[in-house]
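Reading a protein record of the kind used here takes only a little practice. The integers have meaning only within a learned vocabulary of local backbone shapes. With that in mind, consider the following protein and its fold in token form:
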Amino acid sequence: MINIYNIAIKNGDKILLDVKFNINKSIAIVGQSGSGKSLLAKAIVGIVPDNLTTDINTSHIDKIRLVPQNPFTSLSPMSRVKEQFFCDKQKAIDMLNILKLDTDTMDKFPAQLSGGQLQRVVIAMAMVDSPSLLILDEPTTSLDWSKRDEILELIKLLQSKFGFRILYITHDIETTKVFCDTIAVLKDGLIVEQGLTDKVLNQPQHSYTRKLINSTFQRKI
């Protein structure tokens, strides 16, 4: 089933977000900082500030889980990993193993884990609840290039194994090619371009999309 989202958010008379997009298998929402990407994620999971007016219409209500940019925001530094899984212990261990984490990870505190390990723990916590939609909000921003690619490949593996949909939020337009079949370009709370990922990346129609692609290319020179 294709999920259709219509989301509008206002602060008084000011429009902060007004978007419409479909999720078939996976979609990337790309844009620079301040474009409204994280606000979009918060709107879908229902954590928008009370002072904002929100209108969300969707064709189907999914079991949705969010993987935030900073894994520390999802973990208590005072508790061991095993105390932060709300599921059967073996189910948690199995998911950690799929994500290439040893079983002894369960007995560690967050401060004993690397950034990449912490992000995989947070992904495992989201996955044990068998979501039908996984929102990834800049999940690799704090990681180096090698760890970034590893996390993205593991998410791709999980999707092929469990069949959930992905809404991938990022400013790094290059990484959308890993597992996103469609892409939407967000600017100032509005989608200025969307379509098949390959087509948008290879034949961008909007000047803002071209700017994002060019900035990604220039960083790699």
The radius of gyration is 18 Å. Residues 145-162 form the longest helix (18 residues).
